[in-house]
Design brief:
Helix content is about 55%, strand content about 5%. By secondary structure, the chain is mainly α. The longest helix has 24 residues, at about 120-145.
Length: about 150
């Protein structure tokens, strides 16, 4: 898939937040709209099961990111996606498979800490903490880059 200009849908849903880190632009921008030709067989299977391709791709990203959104009953899918990620060799030039599993476990722990039934003030505090913790987590693992054993 090729990233395109920021989606007008996203602009109307939420205010664009400037990048926290210098590299969060271009191919690594949080705001992208995809334009690509779907494999025909993917489109056919999506239609047969009556799930839009957009929903499938969004579920894939939500599960792999281990966030707070839609967590219930998805642990098995997340485990399989981590296995998929590792089976494709993503990141293994820099980290061991065990390091990558630990990264996902740490992300999952952050997602698990969502304050269910929390009041708006608590949710706002959590969101601020989570965003700072994501940056801490990223920098921690970034410093370990190229230290594969």
């Amino acid at each position: 898939m090729r990233p395109m200009s920021p989606s007008s849908k996203l602009k109307s849903i939420r205010k664009r937040v400037p990048p926290k880190l210098k590299w969060q632009t271009g191919a690594y921008s949080r705001y992208v709209e995809w334009e690509d030709v779907l494999p025909y067989s993917f489109l056919l299977i999506a239609k047969l099961v009556n799930v839009t391709p957009d929903n499938i791709v969004t579920d894939f990203m939500d599960n792999l990111s281990c966030g707070s959104w839609k967590r219930e009953g998805r642990d098995s899918a997340k485990e399989k996606l981590v296995d998929y990620f590792i089976a494709h060799g993503y990141g293994q030039d820099y980290y061991t498979a065990e390091d990558i599993r630990t990264m996902f476990k740490e992300l999952d722990a952050i997602g698990l800490s969502w304050p269910y039934n929390g009041k708006p003030k608590l949710i706002d505090l959590y969101a601020k903490w989570r965003n700072k913790h994501y940056n801490y987590w990223f920098k921690k693992w970034r410093r370990k880059t190229r230290r594969k054993k």
